[in-house]
Amino acid sequence: MKRDTRIAWINRLILPLLNILTAFAVTAVVFWLIDVNPIEAAEVLLYGAFGYQEGIGYTIYYTTNFIFTGLAVAVAFHAGLFNIGGEGQAYVGGLGAGLAILMLDPTLGAWVFIPASIIGALIFGGLWALIPAYLQAYRGSHIVITTIMFNFLAASLMVYLMVHVLRDTGQMTPQSELFPTNAWMPFVHDVAAGLGYNIEASPLNLSVLLALVCAVLVWFFLWQTRWGFAIRATGKNGTAAVYAGIKPKHIIIVVMCISGALAGLVSVNELVGYQHRLIIDFHVGYGFGGIAVALMGRNHPLGIIVAALLFGTLYQGGAELAFEMSNISRDIVVVMQGLVILFCGALDYMYRPWLIRRLAPVTKQEELVGAAI
User: Fold this and answer.
1) What does the pLDDT read at residue 373?
2) Does a structural domain hold residue 364?
């Protein structure tokens, strides 16, 4: 096996696994410090995530959200942009999905409502990302700063709209009226029942198929199209891309709109598929979690699906831990997520030099070739 191939395997498989194992090892130490048996905690977590049908449904339901936000971060990252505005883009995408349903005739069929909600989420999420993209491309504002600011702006906007404009009449809770039942994304257990299979009820709905389709489309777009090549070229070397005739400003606009649109699809799973109304804070945690998912998945759709499943497991298993063990709160999920982000992001280079020296050393022939060059 060539050295370049070995290095690729190290970067894409071995290094992420080591980072995850290190994060889990540190988590075990945290459990031990708070007087919790790490092995028992792991058993409870895994049982909560995969031990029964309802738990599996919740795990895949959470996974769906992380696929959307992970893809959103990855698309931007391939252009050299760090979009950390997924929280706000998902939130405003929910506004688009909800308005698309609430403004239509309630007697229409699902074949109108569901595509309309998806399109609304895509448009509103993309437009919310367009403003930071424009500021980065034409005004030099840093995308990290502007997307953080727009997260807070989205939160303020949605609170105002839910309290003063869209709140259901006669309700104190800031939520919209219930969507028509024919606008609901079908639940997987209902679809299975129609096919003659009995599955325990859970929030899992057909949005998971939409997430998988988006993963395939992102792969095709980035690696099989001219636009995808231009995006990756810009991310690798913006100066060289300019000499190749690529316009980085256009790339920034296009990429951020796609990224925001993907993040907006979280609302299809959350609102159209489960809550069936516009609510406050349905998006919390998924936007920032998507950053870790993209980092761990090496910004590749297949890796993102695997990483999203891990985070879905932590979400559902963490809830089971908090329920079963009195000295553990739901916040332990945040701790585990933070450790994964730390080792997959900030400390990503901790193992790489050692792994390359051990598994992909420079051969004598390569040294001679390098010296000759």
Assistant:
1) 53
2) no
